[in-house]
Each structure stands twice: as structure tokens, then as C-alpha cells.
Design goal:
The protein has 242 residues and is of the alpha+beta class. 30% of the residues lie in helices and 10% in strands. It has helices spanning 2-6, 34-39, 103-116, 123-128, 130-134, 149-163, 170-177, 180-183, 199-202, 231-236, and strands at 40-42, 46-47, 50-51, 76-78, 186-192, 211-217.
């Protein structure tokens, strides 16, 4: 979750940097891509009229960031797909809609198809696709003007990541792009808590930006990016295992 959160840049389209004076540890949604605020809650954010308190020092909070409570493990919570006005039973009554496919995905997929087919990338194409997603009224980010395929590719991939976040697309994008050995390995971190007194002795690993340590992952190319063949099918046809 922390890696995803860090993918949302500033509201002028520039990448996130914890060292940038625009980044506010007390309000991580300030000066950010609006989609960060639409998708997440963080320590001190308001949800349904309540303050979300997950600071590692907040021992009285049910959402305190620890390794023992059944609460957040990253310092972030989800706002996306949740109706703040809902007051019923989430297990039986919640009527939130989960998208099957969105127009934004159609536009971004079309641009990717054109790019990977080696077709010319024009400003008109960018404006019809990625800039239509980024420039809509609820987001309002500056337009992309990069038409070089190699330079555009990481921009487009990050746009898919942040626009389609939590919609079940990311893993399949990683597999399609063959980047599992780049992005699914190493240490993963959550939200930063630079003013926490408990962080230095509680986080299992320490980070220069005081981000909470979540986990460490490895990725086995050719194993973790393929579906296993069921043993029952191999028993019927042993050649399937070759």
C-alpha cells in the first residue's frame, strides 16, 4: 500500500518527494494528485466525520499501527469504494459498486496498444486517451506531452497504476509487462512517521524517511507469474507437466 501511495505525485504532475517542501507529514493529502485523497485515508485524515488515528504512538486507538493489532499494517486505510454516508451493515447491506471495466481503462489500454504496436504517438492521441483521464474536472492534472515511446511508457504505466488502483488490474499489468522481478522484490514500506517516538524501537526495520516497515518479498520469475497446472490434470495427461 505504501508503494502505491508513493506513486501519487504532486498536483502539478511532478513525482512525489518526501524532501520536497510541498510534502506535509501532518497532511499527506495536501498538494497531491487528487486521486490520492479520493483513494486513501491516512493518519489525521477525516472519514465519515471522524479522525483516522493510526499513529504508532496512539495506544488508545483501535487503528494504531502495530504488528499485533488487527488494524492497518501500512499506516493507510481505504477511501475508494466506501460510501462515507453509509450507516448500515457492511456485511449484508452495503450497496457500493465495484467496476467491471471503466472508460478510463479503455482509454489507457488503447494508448498502450498503440505504443506497444510501434505506432506513432501524437499529441492528439495523448489528448484523446491519457490526458482525457488526467484532465477531467475531478483530477485536473497537467497534460502529458511526451511522444517518445520509451519515455512515455513509464508515464503510462504509472498512470494505470494510480488511476485503476485497487480495481484488480495491477497484478495482471505486472505480469503482462514482465516486471515482477523489479517491483515485487525487496523491502516494502508504509506511511512515514518522522515525529513518532515509538517508531525507532517498534518498526522492525528503519527507513531514512521514517516509513513503517511492512514486509520483504521475493519474486521467482517463471514461477510466481504463471498459473500452476492442477495435479489432477497432470495425472490425466503427464505431458502437461513438461
Amino acid at each position: 500500500m505504501g508503494s502505491l501511495a508513493d506513486a501519487y505525485g504532486f498536483d502539478d504532475g511532478t513525482p512525489l518527494s518526501y524532501d520536497d517542501p510541498r510534502f506535509d507529514h501532518e497532511d499527506m493529502g495536501a498538494n497531491r494528485d487528487p486521486r490520492f485523497r479520493y483513494n486513501f485515508i491516512w493518519d489525521g485524515a477525516t472519514f465519515a466525520g471522524r479522525i483516522y488515528d493510526c499513529n504508532p504512538d496512539s495506544s488508545g486507538s483501535v487503528d494504531q499501527l502495530t504488528y499485533s493489532k488487527q488494524a492497518t499494517r501500512t499506516g493507510y486505510g481505504l477511501r475508494k469504494f466506501f460510501d462515507e454516508s453509509f450507516s448500515g451493515n457492511l456485511l449484508s447491506d452495503y450497496g457500493g459498486n465495484i467496476p467491471i471495466i471503466r472508460y478510463a481503462e479503455v482509454l489507457l489500454s488503447y494508448l498502450e496498444a498503440e505504443l506497444e504496436a510501434g505506432n506513432a504517438i501524437t499529441q492528439e492521441l495523448l489528448d484523446l486517451t491519457i490526458n482525457a483521464v488526467r484532465g477531467r474536472a475531478s483530477v485536473g492534472l497537467p497534460p502529458i506531452t511526451e511522444t517518445n515511446a520509451a519515455a512515455l511508457r513509464p508515464i503510462l504505466r504509472n498512470e494505470r497504476r494510480i488511476e485503476l488502483a485497487l480495481e484488480g488490474q495491477r497484478l495482471w499489468d505486472i505480469f503482462r509487462w514482465g516486471i515482477g522481478d523489479e517491483v515485487l522484490v525487496g523491502d516494502f514500506w508504509g506511511a512515514p512517521f518522522p515525529n513518532s517516538t515509538l517508531y525507532p524501537t517498534t518498526s522492525k526495520k528503519l527507513d531514512p524517511q521514517s516509513r513503517w516497515y511492512v514486509t520483504t518479498k521475493n519474486f521467482r520469475e517463471g514461477v510466481d507469474d504463471v498459473w500452476p497446472i492442477p495435479e489432477s490434470e497432470v495425472n490425466v495427461n503427464p505431458k502437461l507437466g513438461n
